[in-house]
Amino acid sequence: MAEQLLGIIPPLTTPFTAQGEVYEEGLRRLVEFHAEKGTHGLFICGTYGSGPLMSVAQRKKVHEIVLDQAKGRLTIVAHVGTASTEDAVELAKHAAAIGIPYVSSISPFYYRHDERTVTEYFRALVNAVDVPVYVYNNPHAAAVTITPGLLRRLNDVGVQGIKDSGFNYIEFTHLVLAMADRPAFRFIVGTEGIALPAWMAGAKGCVAGLANAFPEIMIELWNLFQAKEFERAAELQLKVNRARQILHIPSSTNAACYAALHARGIDVGYPKAPVLPVEENKAQEMIAEFRKIGLL
Fold it and tell me: 230-247 and 280-292 helices cross at what angle (nearest 10)?
């Protein structure tokens, strides 16, 4: 039985060298930062983690480094999504074989796939591993929306949960309602922007991009929710959303996390091309705004 997946789960930034190789020292440093801050889990090789930009070998290396450095202190989810079923299955098997307790995948991307194709892709993943498989709903990246009907089909073939990055609270509740007769199915919200209402609707955690650089504010929000201090939590959710606006000052929130982490004194190297480092003027503007709200 896999350890429980819940709480604050950053979609971990992957540090790279200037040449685009995995920066092991920086990655270990970042995992340690999250373990020390009390982060609950890590979603690795996803959007913020530049998974689709890496080779299969690089992603396996990230699996191994993160698991080794976490030392059981954080629940790891390996995102294995690719355009190819074969590569996704290979990554899923590797993650499960080394002891990562969860795998997740976006629908296969680039090509526009119908629901039958998406279902068969996830059937292949589920059949390949003995760990829970979660679908990652990201319509902007996959050109596929996980609808309530498709979600039930995916559960029928063994998918056990969803990380929903649709960014729409109403549609999130429609997914929850569609699975109301299947209480074992688990929901993780894929944005800090609707974390509190999503938790109140049944989500068990949040994959929060903001938590890459500022896990403290998201952990505080989670703790307030757990304590049922809803008025204080609602106030903090607004601050979270302001911080999220600031993270979007650069054109890439992926790149923004590198700049924010460097501002916190954490060497995470470089983004991986074609993602570019944040322009200096944008970095300074972002950092100044984070200081105004007390995060730096």
Answer: 160
All residues at 6 or more sequence positions from 278 whose CB lies less than 8 Å from its CB, including other chains: 250, 252, 255, 256, 258, 259, 286
Is the separation of the CB atoms in 98 and 120 below 8 Å? no
In this prediction, residue 1 carries a pLDDT of 36
Q: Are 193 and 169 in contact (CB under 8 A)?
A: no
**DSSP summary character for residue 264:** T
Q: Cα–Cα–Cα angle for 38, 212, 25, nearest 5°? A: 85
pLDDT single digits (tens) 164-219: 999 999 999 999 999 999 999 999 999 999 999 999 999 999 999 999 999 999 99
Residue 12's domain is classified under what CATH number? 3.20.20.70
| Residue-range definition of the domain harbouring residue 98 | 7-229
260 part of a folded domain: no
